[in-house]
Amino acid sequence: MLRFACSQLVIERLDPLVSSGVIGSPHAHQIVGGNSFNATMEPVEYDLPSRSNCTSCTFSEDFGNYWTAVMYYRARNGTYKRVAQFPNGGLKQNGGITVYYIPPYDGVTNVTTFKPGFRMLAGDPMLRSTTGESRDICHRCFVEDTFAYYETPPCVGANDTTGFPNQFCAGGIRATISFPTCWDGVNLDSPDHRSHVAYATIPFEGYMDPNATRPYAAAMQLGKCPDTHPVHLPQLMYEVMWDTRPYNSKELWGEDGSQPFVYAMGDATGHGQHGDYLFGWKGDALQRAINGHCTNDYDNCKELLSQPAEDAEKCTIPQTVKEDVDGDNWLASLPGNVSINMD
């Protein structure tokens, strides 16, 4: 699989996918990728590679944008502080997101990479339970006090949940967002940013039966796409590493023992985590990487141009919506004055 780091570009309330043109979207996102990110990015018309001059991602030909909701710690007195992040296993990054592009594991199925102007959404920010489409969201509670890279797909382990873990996680929490792998072959987007894509018969292209005895790769299965969406895409997946370790204390959790974390859209369940994607690779770079079978090299790919992590971390942009999103002195409310919604 192609696995690489994208450091933090900016944290603010912009969302050119769902709230195009709006300065001050409903909730705060952490955004990574090309520095041409702004509130209005019309499909095809807005060419990310030509409008960006740096990217916060490892591969310097990737000017796309990736974003997710921000996680906050909510104290008993109702004030908030943004939960810090830590680098993913084997990578060097400043916050941000670890991005995966995963081709089908059968070695036969042709994979069409995304086209210029392609965009999509995974997850549902309004979801507050497992009723609905939640298979694309997973949280892994690292129960050990040191983080180790776990080479297993999302939501196959005993410490995996779709919502927030309701236990202390000695090594922090990893949130995973898996995108659909089937495309209708025609539309680069759709009004709901979902209908032009669909999930295969299994939720994750790298799904492995946790009881399988075969080697990891051999145990993989290939999902079947519906007839309405026959084109196989590489599976896009985000990993976000949240450093919840400073809050592993009964005194810092709810008086009733409830977990204290909340996503920026007022979601204290974790089920509403979501991810947005705007394709922005330069030329045929991504297709070249997939065709070149460099995906076993993780973030080292002879088919692609890469940059040092230090250069990726330097690619940042100022906030458009000027506000405190961190809470160094604690926030009285979530950015955008969002209230907690458990329903």
Strand order of the largest sheet: 1-7-15-11-9-10
- The residue-averaged pLDDT reads 88
Characterize the main sheet: 6 strands, antiparallel
Oligomer: single chain
> What pattern of helices and strands is seen along the backbone?
EEEHEEEEEEEEEEEEEEHH
Tell me the structural class.
mainly beta
Shape category: globular
Count, helices: 3
* Number of structural domains: 1
What is the tally of beta strands? 17
Radius of gyration over C-alpha positions, nearest whole angstrom = 19 Å
- CA distance, first residue to last residue: 37 Å
Fraction in beta strands: 15-25%
Which percent bin holds the helix content? under 10%
Unreliably modeled segments: 206-210, 212-220
Summarize the structure.
Helix content is 5%, strand content 21%. The chain has 343 residues and is mainly β.
Verbal overview:
- By secondary structure, the protein is mainly beta.
- The protein has one domain (1-338).
- Helix content is 5%, strand content 21%.
- The protein contains three helices and 17 strands.
- The strands form four sheets. The protein has a six-stranded antiparallel sheet. Strands 2-3-4-17-8 form a five-stranded antiparallel sheet, with no helix packed on it. A three-stranded antiparallel sheet has the order 6-5-16, with no helix packed on it.
- Strand 5 and strand 6 form a beta hairpin.
- The longest helix has 7 residues, at 285-291.
- Residues 206-210 and 212-220 have low confidence and may be disordered.
